[in-house]
Design brief:
451 residues; 22 helices
Length: 451
Amino acid sequence: MLSQVFAVIIFIAMFVFIVTEIVERQVVSLVCALLTIIFVFGIGMHSMDALIETINLGSIVKPEFWYTAGEASGSSAGINWETIVFIFGMMVMVEGMARVGFFRWLCMRIAKLVRYQIIPLFLTFMILSTVLAMFIDSITVILFLAAVTIELSQLLKFNPVPMILSEIFCANLGGAATMCGDPPNIIIGTSLGYSFMDFVMNTGLIVAVSLVAVLIYFFLVFKKELLAGAEGNVDYSSLPSPESTITDKRGFAVSSVIFGAAVILLVTHAQTGLTVSAIGVFIAIVTLITSGKYAMMLLKKIDYKTLLFFIGLFVVIGGLEQTGILEILAGFIGEISGGNIMVMIAIIIWISAIASAFVDNIPFATTMIPIIRSLSASCGVDLSVLAWTLAMGTDIGGSATPIGASANVVGIATAAREGHVIKWGRYCKKMAPATVMVVLISMLVIYIRYL
């Protein structure tokens, strides 16, 4: 079928250009989206209905986009506007928190609590990275943690690279624990109708078990390196006080309340009936109103490129779905596994992890959602089990290589700016074993708990 050929060629081309980074990824996804509209929906299918269903603008005006009584219904095929609206809202909130110095204050406050001791600081920052990434984009978490880590390393005379590497890994791990922690989880949750607490009770449990193993692993791997250059006699009076990092005391108090409100609304959204898109819009509006004269500055700082990337990506994946390609792929996985759920889980988690180590996990997760939905229907497998498997594979796999996740790229770039170059060999030697360990733990927990 001509439309299927067009859909596959456009999808492969998009992936190649995203991986090679010849052109910015939002340009790639938008151009491929336009090609999908022309060649797949136009020339191949001659279907205006398929195009309208993929653009999915009608979903925004539906009451269930903002409020659902009882069980949340998953998003239909096409552009997942719920994901885009929610990410926009959280971006506004995070920019508001960054403006007043919230993240730097939090890091310095915790450093002071552990009396600036290297090993306690190392372990505490890993836990902090995990917890923050459960609610805030991992890129933001690493931007501030890596900067503060380098500042502390200069004052306390230790090598910041081991700490930055462990923070990167824990940010990716923490993102797997909740629905809003990592973009693939937001897409999985909004597409399949899972709540914040659904993720906490399932992927959150796997992350909690994995975190214990990760803390032990990085402690054993980096202990000597961290203590090697550390000096015992440090003038603690020269260290900046946590309070000095706050740039706007009133704004700081307001941002703290807004962040607390966002967490409460997300935790209770299944009970209140508010969708994540409604929560995102509410948080953004409150942040902008309370920011006053800084509102326009916050809006200018939003990462619109990422939002445009999402829109283009959803259209391209919509082309694959409308032409039935994803159903064929689901049938193929079902055939290989012979309908055996244990084999199916192993295939999904390892393919997801390996793919996410080298390509962006967002397009991969978006592609896999209709596949696991089709697998569940055709093989009689519980969809939620496949969803948690996909979430863990895509979220954790990205930690294995320097290009696997955006947080990795940001952390390495921050370290390099201060003269601490982290090469591929060093990165993979420490991070790939940790990734394999967590994927194995995830698979075992899924087997033990659900089968």
